[in-house]
């Protein structure tokens, strides 16, 4: 099996995906959106894990005032 990388404009992106999905010989479509969504979900899970550790007293955090002063 071979793969193809296509670069298109944002305006034409969704139209192209719909077209590709309707081709009988296209077996799988991978988009960069999938990897971005996976990365976002992993970041959310990590954040929730940190909140849980903080609630259990196993993780120290900084105050909002200290955080803003660092910026």
Number of domains: 1
Q: Please identify the structural class as seen in this structure.
A: mainly alpha
β-strand number:
0
Helix-strand pattern, N to C?
HHH
Query: What are the low-pLDDT stretches, counting only 5+ consecutive residues below 50?
Result: none
Shape: elongated
Mean pLDDT: 88
Task: Kindly list the characteristics that best describe this protein.
71 residues
Overview of this structure, please?
The protein is an all-alpha fold and 71 residues long. It has one domain (10-70). It has 3 helices and no strands. The protein has helices at 10-21, 32-55, 64-70. The longest helix has 24 residues, at 32-55. The radius of gyration is 21 Å and the shape is elongated.
